[in-house]
Amino acid sequence: MVQGRGNADLVVVNMAAVLLCLMVLTGHVHAATYTVGGSGGWTLDVDRWPKGKHFKAGDTLVFTYDPTIHNVVAVNRGGYSSCITPAGARVYKSGNDQIKLSKGQNFFICNVAEHCESGMKIAISAA
Length: 127
Prior knowledge:
Elements (H helix, E strand, L loop, with lengths): L1 H28 L3 E3 L24 E5 L7 E4 L1 H6 L7 E3 L3 E5 L3 E6 L11 E6 L1
Parallel strand pairs: 1-2
Antiparallel strand pairs: 2-5, 3-4, 3-6, 6-7
């Protein structure tokens, strides 16, 4: 009898592990990857690119650009509106940056002189 109970407990533990794995995998299956700016990449006048798209937390934005003349800075709403990089903002410089969206508002700018003011910024709302 004791052996039978042990086997039943093992089956329950295994089933719980399988269900947990399925829940984790299901969450990742729904995440999407977007290349910011489409084929043109992260460049001037990209601020209208997000319009009509529906983003979710966990989606990945890929920023492709020439790192000798651009960058990507994750900013707050104030930094987005003013095109000023706040203290402590994360600056990306690889030319092929992959950034996972957080739930809520996500703001990105290029802080090279006059680029943000020329529309090199995006605001993304992720559900």
